[in-house]
Model the fold of this input.
Amino acid sequence: MNKKGTVLHWIIFGILVALAVFFVMSKTGIIKQEPKAYWSLHFLKNNYLEAEKILLSYESIERIIAKDTIQELAQNGGLQKTEISNCGTLQNINLWNNNNQWCMPDAPKNFSTSATAQLNTKLPQLKFTNLQFNKNTFSAKAPKQPLHTLLLKQHNFPSDQTYFYDPSFAIELSYSLDEYTQLQSEAKLLVEKCRNTQEFLTCIEQAKPTHWHPGFCDQTKNPKKQSNPKPTGPSTIDRKTIFCVQSPNGYTLNTGQANVKENIIYTFALDFTPSSLLPVQDTTITYLEAKEMYHFQFTHNPIAQGYKIYYTNWLIIKDNTPGNAQDIFSSVPKDPALGFYETTFINTANLQPCVTQVDAQPNQAYLCQNKIQYYLSNPQLKKDISYIAGITAHTDKEESLLTNFVDMASK
Amino acid sequence: MMDDFFDFLFTVMAAVFLFYFLTFTLHQSVKESDNQALDELSTFHRFDSSVNNLRLQLYDGQSLTPEEIGVKIEKSKILGGKTITSCSDYETQIECEKDSAGTSQDHPDYECVWDKQSKSCLSLRKPTADIK
Done:
């Protein structure tokens, strides 16, 4: 073997020895290589995916906030939990009107205020702005957030990775605050229709839309969801009444469980105080032969300070009703020989407690279970002449209309 | 003359050995690297699908706490080419009731129940008697 051949042999042996040493040292016999697309995969996993997880967790919080705020507003008549209506409350339920004043809630503004407060509490690191609830989309803007991750130094990548994600959101909900506009229109119509009727509760029953229910919401169905304390009194006081209204568009809220939805229920109260003094309409008159007195009976109006009983033999004025008593009686002839016309006053301050007809005194008024009973005795009234009578209620400022006359039959 | 022939034969055999040996070794390491990258990619796809599944769950009105999100994504499984993150990802009654991915494992009070009306798999609380 020549010298060159020997060198080649030794080189080959050297390589084989080197390989043997490599195998012994590496144990696995596999040459470690960087995984392919290390940077890209690291970026996807630790930046993109992490940001998606964060955004998903934000969305879950935002959806809960939207749901809670919608419910809070609905249960407080469109106002925030801590707010009280300018029109006052009835049994802790906000009133939407008081006499002639309307205090309609600005639901979008209240939603925005309440939701912003909750977002700032639950996600304080994101400075949300321009929060709104347009149509059925709940949205807000927030500055982009950086997500820093460190690449392992052993992979010799030159820099850290920073990924910016945008936490602004626009969540579509199966609900719209426009529903308040509809409810407010319905409320105004109902009040206009029923406020000037004596039996306003009957009027409400007949005129209310089908999704309106007078009274408290049934707390037994969902006691945890009610923010208001359990009612202890009646739902109607002094012509003010509470309503429990189902969503007119059938909107529902998610409960957190699949396929289980919760109805949206609005709670508020309305005031049906009449715009003018209500006329007296349910008068009955009977003649008490034994006592020679006329017995008048009609429903008491708590606002009235007194009543005027007009009676006459000028029967044709019957056709002039309804109208102002003064105008109606202006056609009665001034000459007593032609037309007889008398007025009697009842002052509510002088109402006597209820007594039986036997004990009743002439020209005295008694209050018997919300009914006024008046015993009229006037020697000028002749048995063989027909008379009619009409009653009006009055206060310091006004007198009600005279809507009808009743025959004073003495036979 | 014979020495030279054996030298030649030795050299050729050593070269062949080295060629195959190095080719095998290097190929193995490249394959290993490929597999590692593919594993990472498949994990990423599983996680990404899982995030989408959870997003759908949110759209569907189910509640999801931020704490649950990470756990559900980590524990998601691929069954028949579909990523299963929670009960609602099962498409058939058999899959739903079997719950092969064990989505309810962390919540022993809950189980996957097939809702015939909506034809979907729901995560429902077990009747009180079944909770141990």
